[in-house]
Amino acid sequence: MLWSLLKILVFVAIIGLLAMGAGFLMESSGGVQITVAGTEYTLGPLQSVIALGVLVFAVWLFFKLLTLLIATLKFLNGDETALSRYFDRSREKRGYQALADGLMALASGEGRVAMTKANKAEKLLNKPELTNLLVAQAAEMTGDTKKATETYKKLVTNNATRFVGVRGIMKQKLAEGDDETARKLAEKALALKPRHEETQDVLLNLQTRAQDWAGARSTLTSKLKAGYLPRDVFKRRDAVLALSEAKVLLDDTATVEQQEHAIEANRLSPDLVPAAAMAARAYIKKGKPRAATKIIKKAWEVQPHPDLAHAFAEIAPDETPDQRVKRFTALTRIHPENMETRLILAELNIVAEDFPEARRALGDVVEKQGDARAYTLMAAIERGEGASDAVVQGWLAKALNAPRGPQWVCDNCHDIQPEWGPVCQNCGSFDTLSWQTPQTPEIASATGVHMLPLIVGALEDQSEAEEEPEVDDPEVEEVIEVNAEPVEIEQEKRA
Ligand SMILES: [Zn+2]
Known about the structure:
There is one protein chain. With 495 residues, the protein is mainly alpha-helical. It has a domain at 89-158. Helices cover 71% and strands 4% of the residues. It has 25 helices and five strands. Helix 6 (128-141) runs antiparallel to helix 7 (145-157), helix 7 packs antiparallel against helix 8 and helix 14 packs antiparallel against helix 15. The longest helix has 32 residues, at 45-76. Zinc ion is lined by residues 410, 412-413, 415, 424, 426-427, 429, 432.
């Protein structure tokens, strides 16, 4: 409103000034004297202003005619489009219009229209760096992969459009499932544009899938440098990658380098359970049990985990079960109420044949949040205390029907994985496995619930009829074997 008023005021002021100027010129005396070939012309003030306008027009006309002359000369020299270009002034305009229409068609999903417009624009404009991209995109939309590839290759040859071309071919290879070529192209694209976030993500994904951990670490670093990754996330992911570099079983063949990677991974992310377990094993191999203990204790503080307990047991493989219970207090006193701590403590006491202590360690776990492992331990305790087979088998049957407890679950697709890995084996996403109780109902319970009355009923009948500990049903025997596993392992270790 105020702006419009201002514009009107300025317009009125200009008109006023022009009128004043013209009046001033008409009233003023004097003028311009021009002498041409001995004749003298005297122009009045207003006339001289008009003459100046005519002069400007004459100069403009002169240059126009000059460009026409140049176009004609070019035409005579063999440039056939020079004249038509000169006369067809609207050509460029129509070219840009076609380009704009093509882009519009592309955005509204009309591949064929976009293709036609792209071809028209290409002819009119003769600017391949502008039109090729439209052609490639339109070709992809209409499913003409060959044409798209051809066009992308043309884009690669031009310095200004090389990145776009490489990226286009890379996407095609990704769609084809040719990850190997796509990875090489992504590396090339990233070399052209090191800060391009999408390419960084694509490359990182391909590298982790191809288990190129060293390459993935350098891509991750470039993400950090570009500022697309918070430092704490970077540290955690870098740790996962360092761990993956080390993730060859730390047996006798493990190199010093792999051990170092494990230790580095633990340093970068002390709460990463597999890294802590692996680093501890690396220290055990190096003959540094103190360092191993320290690492496991630190990780246990964040999250008690059976892998940590196993690594902790390996620090002193030859100790007696009683010595082991005593040594484990270093861990078990950190989170005494934690489920994992209680289960480990019960297991250790069962191996040491201190069954009342094992029962005390389990406490109310069995009533509150019993899982298969807790029920199996209860069965072992009952057996150790000399309960009847019916009682023991009752616990085992309960274990069959119970949830399996926490496992490595992918946060992205909720798939359950048998062991930790940097990449989810189901959906391929990176660093999504976490130790948690699965949300989904488990397959075991589907048949378990169905079978339970049969199993327990059969067991009760049997124990009443004859004191026969043998179980005839092969399925039940299998269940007992599977669920008794944790105890068996501990017993083996003792032996
Ligand atoms: Zn997944």
